[in-house]
Amino acid sequence: MAARVLNVNVGVLGHIDSGKTALARALSTTGSTAAFDRAPQSRARGITLDLGFSCLRTALPPQLGPGPGELQLTLVDCPGHASLIRTIIGGAQIIDLMMLVIDVTKGMQTQSAECLVIGQIACQKMVVVLNKIDLLPEGKRQSAIEKMTKKMQKTLENTKFSGCPIVAVAAKPGGPEAPESENPQGISELIEVLKSQAYLPSRDPSGHFLMAVDHCFSIKGQGTVMTGTILSGSVSLGDNVEIPALKVTKKVKSMQMFHTPVTYAMQGDRVGVCVTQFDPKLLERGLICTPDSLHTIHAAIISLKKIQYFRGALQTKAKFHITVGHETVMGRVMFFSPAPANFNEEIQENVFDFEKDYLYQEQYLSKDSVSSEENKENNHAGEVQLPKQQWALLEFEKSVTCPKLCLVIGSKLDTDIHANTCRLAFHGVLLQGMEDKNYTETFLPKLKVYKQKHKEGQVERVSCLSMLVIGRSLFKKETNIQIFVGLKVKLSTGEDGIIDGGFGQSGKFKIRIPGGLKPDTKMLLTTASKKKSKGGKGDVTKEDESSKNDSAQPVIISLIFKRYVFDTQKKIIQS
């Protein structure tokens, strides 16, 4: 019987030139066809340009179960250059454990921070590796390592990785040009730490097969090999797999895991799948799956959270770079929340309820987005009322192929890469995709997002035995007042009224007061009317004076209603 092999995917992330590829090389027992910057462009530029994969095989640690077996740590070497953040995000979504590589002579840098943010979104456990300790003066080396360790502990204090292991190494003593005879330092200690942090990730062979392909190449006489990580389900020799972006289905001819032929692979495994009669140039990276199990979408509803390190507000109608799996496309967002009365309601995770009403938001609601004026108005005395969950409608400029409930990350990748700022803006879960190109007509009307409208006008005078008042300044002259007839209004003096119709041609209107005006209100309005009429037509000074008195205590008319954003009939609704 073959020995049990447990695969754990370990991401190697960090700032450019922190020594990630050298570390992956020092740790690995086997390299894949996409390991250690084998691509000619990477060698020419001396930096990692794509995901690299290699593996370390070691004895199964005791916490992962009794009996003989091996632990296979698949190392995912992610590029560190700021412009390759899309690739880093794609890599982060397939890892179980993360190594954050820090140049010990420089500490946390901009991309180290972005990698930490990505890790917090996509990963459960982390090990910090302080690399290049050989560059520290020997006499001060230990104290410099201790100082940097304390700094990193402080940095991680308020993250999910607080208290994670920190290991000091020199993956390539003397740098890239040093002879191979120079032995790495601290690698055996790091392997022991990685073994201690390894855990049994959730692996489920059932369900549809889905694999994130990161490299595609041909082997003469064999066919085309697609290498990647299985995200869900399993695959066997002879299975049919679909490349949904190209609407092409192929049969699996052979499979390998790190140069070892296999007949079966499941969720979490790193595998090369060989098919025939397929041009590798057609698929640099993407998804392959069980035929007809994935769909291409043009828009989506996601639940989301703002990334706390992103500076500035997340505005509705703004464009973001939206990363879904290995794809990054431009997309426009519209934020919405529960109705204010339901802000504290527990929301069922990963489910979107189309029966409920949702409140349109001009921007994502966060502590820093709600102004102090709004707090004063709402008498919160500085306490900001925020919903437990918020959502966004994403409309993609180019369609994407992805599974439901996949991770979505929104970024501002056009920000200057030299600016010391986090470009990652929000992350979320894709709850509902829209496959129809005409989704604005066929799908969006089902989405009950409304805008709350609040209009104010003034009572001009009383008419008809206290049961009718004439109002102004609520509508423009050209407004069709007929569509507002029958709507309820409230006077600042407490009376409820109903809009009865227009009055004249200047935008004035009649309000019926079913319960009649209060005596105090009637006196206030009658006094104001008398003052105006006493002024006479030519007496401008007195008219101005009476207007001032009038405006000092006008009776305000409030009209509150809502309109659904995607209602084609633009109906006005009052609760």
UniProtKB/TrEMBL annotation:
The protein's name: Selenocysteine-specific elongation factor
Organism expressing this protein natively: Urocynchramus pylzowi
Residue spans of biased composition, Basic and acidic residues class: 536-548
GO cellular component, one term: cytoplasm
Domain Tr-type G stretches: 5-202
Cofactors, names only: Mg(2+); Mn(2+)
Function: Translation factor required for the incorporation of the rare amino acid selenocysteine encoded by UGA codons. Replaces the eRF1-eRF3-GTP ternary complex for the insertion of selenocysteine directed by the UGA codon. Insertion of selenocysteine at UGA codons is mediated by SECISBP2 and EEFSEC: SECISBP2 (1) specifically binds the SECIS sequence once the 80S ribosome encounters an in-frame UGA codon and (2) contacts the RPS27A/eS31 of the 40S ribosome before ribosome stalling.
Source taxon at top rank: Eukaryota
Protein's cellular compartments: Cytoplasm; Nucleus
